[in-house]
Design goal:
Mean pLDDT: 76
Shape: elongated
Radius of gyration: 30 Å
Strand order of the largest sheet: 6-5-4-7-8
Strand content: 15-25%
Number of helices: 3
Distance between the termini: 51 Å
Structural class: alpha/beta
């Protein structure tokens, strides 16, 4: 990949001796292929990173709240779509099966934290009904997910803005 052969500068004299090496190993490493691979990986990760978030398209309400610290375990996310459908991660779940499925998931998880994402246009009553079902399934640590940069209370802006 990078080792080559380099001729010695010998001036004008040409002598041949038996056993004398005319060529020495080149001690330079060609880093161009390495840089090419790193740039390709950088581009791949830049494209893939936004796709790693939960893929249910919602128009989240905007608030002045701070961001929630990152978890060690992949967060369990429940999404409420504009048409009222419940999604556990990216899987649609009928209302009647929600509690049973979440109880089964709770037995396997270390954290009891659950992220609830709801479209800003759905009625508040529907969000509260789902929160009650989540509480009934054993989840009391429910985080409501919103978009940052929204209006603050009494005209105040979010910390850090």
């Amino acid at each position: 990949m990078g080792a080559g052969v380099m001729k010695k500068a010998g001036g004008g004299r040409r002598r041949r001796r038996s056993g004398h090496r005319r060529h020495a190993a080149m001690s330079e490493i060609n880093v161009t292929p390495f840089v090419d691979v790193m740039l390709v990986l950088l581009i791949i990760f830049m494209v893939a990173a936004p796709l790693l978030t939960v893929g249910v398209p919602l128009e989240l309400p905007k608030t002045a709240a701070r961001a929630v610290p990152a978890e060690q375990e992949e967060p369990l996310t429940i999404s409420l779509t504009l048409d009222g459908q419940i999604m556990v991660m990216n899987t649609p779940v009928p209302d009647a099966e929600l509690i049973g499925r979440l109880r089964a998931v709770a037995a396997e998880r270390v954290s009891d934290k659950l992220y609830l994402r709801a479209d800003g246009a759905i009625p508040y009553e529907r969000v509260v009904q789902v929160m009650g079902a989540l509480n009934n399934a054993g989840y009391s640590n429910i985080v409501l997910v919103t978009d940052a940069g929204g209006p603050g209370f009494a005209g105040q802006t979010a910390p850090g803005n």
